[in-house]
């Protein structure tokens, strides 16, 4: 039977393609609804500014997914080290020449384009690919503490150290993702405990040095956020974002206020990015907003595990697992912030929040997952085909003898 255009173009895991469509639908609906008033005030009455921007980014992301999922996944193994070095260099450039927005230098302005690149997003995916390659390469030597420290933790520590001065939450998240990936990759738990302990000590020492020798108030911001979250002692201003998100969630209830009827979008900063999950619950409720999205990310995780199990070699399996873990952990952190389970981190909801660099990076990641899935699916079809041909030939012989 001849394949249709859709089947020929979109290869790999059909469920993941369906999830991509679902994320994009939620993204367009939620971004438009959550940002219509901000767009009206900030862009001369153009209420569709953010919707148009997100629509263009999602179109670009779809092209990226299609292109990347056709690329052979082996190139990521060959280029993993180069990706990591380039991303580290970009982080250094960001610290020195980056654009300072909201009292933090996290973006690198590309000259002549007006496009701001959040280099920590690039470093995150580069590090994840590097860990997948390194796990597959040293799979039988992971009991060597010095080898694991040299080839695993040292690169992780360098990337996190370059991100931490301006974005502690992202550095902590990337370190946590790396630890989970190494745990999945069979790095001994005692090693991981030691690394976590050393990382906690390093963060405390860094904070002390920063507070003593500089006038930077970011340490005080970190301290206040953590203390306010666990003690509940913060005032209305310090907990403003979280309080508005809680109001949005509580008023959304089970079925929501209906699309476009959010009231907290007018009061909640970052309603179209960091806190978009709260707006989705306010408008679509628990049953049509929260549960479908949570299930979608869980399904993505399980589909990733299923693809990894079918891989014949270590690298594609670790690549899929690492990228899926990165996406799902970030999604969980975003949702936990919205409902008040952890302090505000500034992480977007993958493939749903309004964004640029984050959307492109997540699209590349999904494309790489589908690249592995495409190869696995094609191999399995080739393995099944001879049996089907034998069965068809047997039926033909039977029919001829019967006639």
Short description:
The chain has 403 residues and is mainly alpha-helical. The protein is built from 13 helices and three strands; from the N terminus they run H-H-H-H-E-E-E-H-H-H-H-H-H-H-H-H. Helices cover 73% and strands 3% of the residues.
Return the structural class. Answer: mainly alpha
* Percentage of β-strand residues: under 5%
Distance between the termini: 26 Å
Give the C-alpha Rg. Answer: 23 Å
| Helical fraction | over 70%
Strand order of the largest sheet: 1-2-3
Mean pLDDT: 87
Order of helices and strands: HHHHEEEHHHHHHHHH
Total number of beta strands: 3
Low-confidence stretches: 385-403
Our count of helices gives: 13
Largest sheet: 3 strands, antiparallel
Structure notes:
The chain is mainly alpha-helical. The chain is 73% helix and 3% strand. The protein has helices spanning 5-9, 14-42, 49-70, 74-97, 119-137, 145-163, 168-184, 189-213, 218-231, 240-252, 276-310, 314-338, 357-402, and strands spanning 99-101, 104-109, 116-118. Strands 1-2-3 form a three-stranded antiparallel β-sheet. It is globular and about 55 Å long. The two termini are 26 Å apart. The relative contact order is 0.14. Mean pLDDT is 87; it is low at 385-403.
